[in-house]
Each structure stands twice: as structure tokens, then as C-alpha cells.
Specification:
alpha/beta, Restriction Endonuclease, five-stranded mixed beta sheet, two-stranded parallel sheet, Chemotaxis protein
């Protein structure tokens, strides 16, 4: 296991990876972390500062200067202002005198050279000479290399009473089967289920999941296969949220620590998602049939399922950015996030424009991805593109019904989808006997005042699927207990909806439950100001998006998505 950890650490980058992981490790070791990495603020060589016990059992100030990978001559004393020697000089010359809090001024100072790899031999003598020259009664130095960090992880995160050898075996199996992502994901799911079933403190369990996910992500990135890490990051976030969702039951001190831990996990999930999308998806969205060809599926069913899945992933990250934009303090950060969101929205448009198969949902379950995309595109506050996409989608569905090609169906099993549509008597009526897709599209058209789209849905329904039972799905009182882990059936269905009515009457009927129930607002993620957790649950566990996200688009939806997390 230590060899796995050392390889994992050696692959970690300095910014947003090793510097994000180290505070979690220190906290688990009993250190009091007093300073974490900051963007845009000069840190005078210190990435992380913490108070902990030295080898004599005394409280000491630990100052960490972090570098990724091995410490080479360039990393030690190169031309870059990020060289480690320059950072250490700043710590000695400025940080110790000016930035250590007054209550810790009298404590001994330990400057830690922290990196995921090892010190290369050609620079070892230089480092040793620097340390000897600058060590005194007040200041000493420690080398926290990959070997030491791996041992600390084993002694703290992976200690036998916390993660028995059987569970370490699950970690190894997950890493060994990255070329079979669903199998790897299955082992990781077993692993975090066992971790979270422990009787340890909640924050300890979350940190355990956090480091396990870090290991999986870095391993996946090294193998250039991110699928297992992406799915596992979603699952880990949902399972850990389920563990601590009743935040009001904790003391303020406990709550703050737990919020910090869950925020770290969410940040890691976002890092995995963004890295996957920026390296595997966005660069190919602008290429005609680029991603359709890249799927290399056995048939058009494979391409359709994967492209809608990608559409959902892109859209969900766009919605996370909406939530993040509201909570930044600096104007420059807000501008940067808005530019990033614009890039994601353009990527969604490019994906749809260059892959016409996204005009043809094959499964009712793809209502989820369509809804996520509409919600994401709505962040641009321009319905022109949305209207053209819906218009083209309805035209394609109508053509598919007319030609008896792959029209939307209730089928979910792959073995049945590849035979769809069949030609036997009564087949169409059987696989289109109910629908949430058309009910959702009609509702979206109504709330955005797209009368022509609503009328097109009515005509499609009349001409081809008049037998279909139109349905809407809602959250129920038991959803809070079940939705995060998909642990039980929940929710409520309004069936037998009548399209032969005005757009206003349809909207009133479908949205009545949302407007007259507090279920949505009482969900833990909504109360805590993190609605995108609910969107992850819907995407990952295949639940329709609650209609509450679509009431009065442009007003209420902004209030929901732009709420402040954990307020």
C-alpha cells in the first residue's frame, strides 16, 4: 500500500492538489491548521501553517513550503520565483517576524520542505548546506518528502483500526481495474460504504473518503482514464453529504469543522469534474461529429447514450459555476468565473450543434440530461438558442415516429434498446405507454412562454402517442432520507396529465404541487445553500429534476442556484 501512496504523492501537483491535501492530513494528525493556501495573496513562502507537537512534545509552529513531484536543481534554485530556496528565504526574512500570530511567537519554528517525490542527489548537498546554515535555537527544518507523507497517510488515514486490510484491498482492486471503469467504481463504492459505516467521528470518516478519492483521481489521471474517478467523486460527495446533512444538530465548533471537511471534498469533486471536462470533452465539442466519433461505439445506441451523458456532465458543472459566482468576494474572481461559465455554455451549444444525435433522446431517462442542459443554457438569459434546439428536437422526434425509427421509449435495458424499435403489433403502444419527457418539455415551454413549442408538443402527442400516460415526478417527505444514497423508493407521481388544455392551465396543474409544498425548500442541500448537490443526486441516481428548479425561470431559479452555501 505504501508503494501505491508514494506513486500517488509523486504525481500530485503543487497548486490545488498537494497544498489542498496537506491541511486535511495535518488535521487528522491532531495539528491545528492556522493558515491555508490563498490565491492572489502573497504568502512569503508559506503555503500551510499549523501548530503541532515537535519531537520533544512541545507545541511548535510548523511552516510548510510545498512543491510538486521531485525536488530538482531547477525546483530548488531555478530562475522561477517559485523556487523553493527563495521561498525558504522569505519565510526566514519576513514571515516568521511579521506573520506568526502573537500568541505563537514564543514557540519554536519548524520549517518543512514538503514535496510529493524525493530530493534528487544533485541537489541534496545544496539543501543540507542551506539547512545547516539557517538552523538555530529558534528555527529548525524537517523534510516532508513522498516517503514520509506516505507513512503519515498509513499511520493516520489508513491505520489498521480505521481501514482494515480488507478495505485496503478494495482500494487496490479499484486502482487495478481502471480500464474497466464501472468495476473500479463498484469497488470504490464498497470502500467508501465501509468507511462511512465506521463508528469514528464524522469528520474523520469524511477525511478518509477524501484521501481515498485523491488517490483514485491521481491514479486515473496517470492512466489517462478518468471515468472511474468522475463517477466515484459524485458518489463520494453524495454519501458524505448524507452522513452530515443535519448540520443544525452539531455545535457551532463541530459544524465549522464538518463544513470545512465537506467543502474540501466538494472542491475535490469539482477539480475532478473540471479536469475531466477540460481535457476529455471541451476540446472536441467544436468539431463536427468529434465526440460522436470518439465514442467508438458498436452502434448508434452507444453514441446516443454517451453523448447525452456528456451533455449532463457539462451542464452540471455550468450550474456549479452559477452557485460559485454569487459567493466570490473579489470582482476579478467574479469576472473570471463568469468567463469560465460562458466557455462552458458555449461548449454545450457546440456539443449540440456538432452532434445531431442530441436531437433524438432514445430513453425517457434522458429527460434528466435535457433538463440539466436547459437549466444551464438558461443561465445566459437568452432563450433564442434554447427555442431552436427544442424546435429541432421535436421535429426529429416527429420524423422518427413517422419513419418508425428510434423514437423516445420507456426502455432502459441496453439489450432491448439495440432492438428498438420493433415492428410487431402493439409494440409502439407498449414502449410509449407513459412519459415524463413530454410532460417536462410542455412545462418548460409554458414557464418560458414558448407557445409554439407547447403547441408542437400537443400536435406530436395527438398524432403519435395519444395513448401515452403523461406524468410528472415530485419529491416527497421521504426523499430526504433516500435521495442521497438512492437507498429506497421515494417521490410521488402525478399521472394522467391532460395536454388538451391551455398552456396556462397546464402550468398551473403541473406546478401546483411545487407551489404548495415545502418539501423542496426543506431538503438539506437547499436549506444549506448548495442546490447542486441535489442536481448531482438526480444525475447520478437517475431521478427527474424537481420542477421547483423551473418555476419562474430567471427569477426563482436564480435565487436557488445563487444561494450561499451552508449559511
Amino acid at each position: 500500500m505504501k508503494l501505491i501512496l508514494k506513486q500517488y504523492l509523486s504525481q500530485m501537483r503543487e497548486r490545488h492538489e498537494l497544498d489542498a491535501f496537506l491541511p486535511e492530513l495535518l488535521s487528522d494528525m491532531g495539528f491545528n491548521v492556522i493558515s491555508k493556501p490563498q490565491v492572489g495573496t502573497r504568502q512569503y513562502g508559506v503555503d500551510v501553517a499549523a501548530i503541532g507537537k515537535n519531537t520533544r512534545g512541545e507545541d511548535a509552529v510548523y511552516l510548510f513550503s510545498i512543491k510538486g513531484g521531485d525536488l530538482t536543481r531547477k525546483e530548488w534554485d531555478g530562475d522561477s520565483n517559485q523556487a523553493l530556496r527563495g521561498s525558504l528565504n522569505e519565510i526566514i526574512d519576513v514571515y516568521i517576524d511579521r506573520f506568526i500570530p502573537s500568541e505563537h511567537k514564543d514557540k519554536p519554528v519548524i520549517i518543512c520542505l514538503c514535496f510529493g517525490g524525493e530530493i534528487k542527489e544533485q541537489v541534496r548537498l545544496n539543501v543540507s548546506s542551506f539547512i545547516d546554515k539557517n538552523t538555530n535555537n529558534k528555527i529548525s527544518f524537517e523534510e516532508w518528502n513522498g516517503d514520509k507523507l506516505a507513512q503519515l497517510i498509513q499511520d493516520n488515514f489508513l491505520k489498521e483500526d480505521f481501514l482494515p486490510r480488507d478495505y485496503q484491498g478494495l482500494m487496490r482492486k479499484s486502482l487495478a481495474l481502471l480500464d474497466e471503469p464501472l468495476t473500479s467504481y463498484g469497488y470504490f463504492k464498497e470502500l467508501i460504504t465501509e468507511i462511512l459505516a465506521s463508528n469514528k467521528a464524522e469528520i474523520a470518516r469524511i477525511r478518509q473518503v477524501y484521501i481515498s478519492l485523491w488517490i483514485l483521481f491521481v491514479w486515473c489521471r496517470d492512466e489517462n482514464n478518468l471515468e472511474s474517478a468522475f463517477l466515484s467523486a459524485e458518489l463520494a460527495t453524495l454519501y458524505c453529504w448524507n452522513l452530515i446533512k443535519n448540520l443544525d444538530s452539531y455545535s457551532e465548533k463541530q459544524k465549522r469543522k464538518i463544513v470545512d471537511a465537506i467543502n474540501s471534498l466538494i472542491s475535490l469533486y469539482r477539480l475532478v469534474s473540471d479536469f475531466y471536462l477540460r481535457t476529455k470533452i471541451i476540446p472536441y465539442c467544436h468539431i463536427q461529429h468529434g465526440l460522436s466519433s470518439a465514442v467508438q461505439g458498436r452502434n448508434h445506441i452507444d453514441v446516443n447514450l454517451k453523448l447525452f451523458d456528456i451533455l449532463g456532465r457539462l451542464s452540471l458543472e455550468t450550474l456549479w459555476l452559477s452557485n460559485e459566482i454569487t459567493n466570490v468576494n473579489e470582482e476579478n474572481d467574479e469576472i473570471l468565473l463568469k468567463n469560465t461559465q460562458s466557455q462552458y455554455i458555449q461548449a454545450i451549444k457546440n456539443l449540440i450543434n456538432n452532434n445531431p444525435i442530441l436531437l433524438s433522446p432514445y430513453r425517457e431517462g434522458q429527460t434528466i440530461e435535457v433538463a440539466l442542459a436547459l437549466l444551464a443554457l438558461n443561465q445566459e438569459d437568452d432563450l433564442t438558442y434554447i427555442h431552436s434546439w427544442l424546435e429541432a428536437m421535436l421535429d426529429r422526434i416527429r420524423s422518427n415516429f413517422l419513419a418508425n425509427q428510434t423514437y423516445p421509449s420507456t426502455l432502459s435495458e441496453y439489450s432491448k434498446l439495440i432492438k428498438h424499435p420493433a415492428h410487431e403489433q402493439g409494440y409502439k403502444e407498449k414502449v410509449t405507454q407513459s412519459s415524463v419527457l413530454y410532460a417536462f418539455l410542455a412545462t418548460y415551454a409554458a414557464v418560458t412562454d414558448m407557445q409554439d413549442i407547447y403547441d408542437s408538443i400537443k400536435i406530436l402527442y395527438r398524432d403519435y402517442i395519444g395513448h401515452c400516460n403523461l406524468q410528472a415526478w415530485y419529491l416527497s417527505d421521504d426523499s430526504e432520507a433516500a435521495i442521497w444514497k438512492n437507498s429506497a423508493a421515494h417521490g410521488a407521481t402525478l399521472a394522467g396529465l391532460n395536454l388538451n388544455t391551455s398552456m396556462h392551465e397546464w402550468q398551473e396543474e403541473v406546478l401546483y404541487q411545487c407551489k404548495n409544498s415545502a418539501t423542496f425548500k426543506e431538503l438539506s442541500a437547499i436549506k444549506s445553500g448548495s442546490p447542486c448537490l441535489l442536481l448531482i443526486a438526480c444525475r447520478h441516481h437517475k431521478y427527474p429534476l424537481p420542477y421547483d428548479f423551473f418555476i419562474n425561470l430567471g427569477t426563482d431559479v436564480d435565487k436557488i442556484l445563487n444561494s450561499t452555501p451552508f449559511s
